[in-house]
Amino acid sequence: MNHNKVYSFMNEKGDLVNYTVKEYLSLNNTDYVLMSPENNASLIEVYKFTFENGNEALDLVNNEKELTAVKSASKVI
Q: Where does the chain show beta strands of DSSP type E?
């Protein structure tokens, strides 16, 4: 997979923020992407792919148990 992919999001202030993909992984039938904001490469955030109204979406993972499982399987954190 291409780990140089960039996702762009609008933050709460309406500013465009770019995230660089560090890793994709699948765990327990769920697909995750680990990304860093372009302005802070040392910060890695975990998102999971979901579907809302038939459209793919990314949700930030906040659940500690889920984060621990992703971190255990990850090669970048």
A: 6-10, 16-27, 30-37, 45-52, 55-60
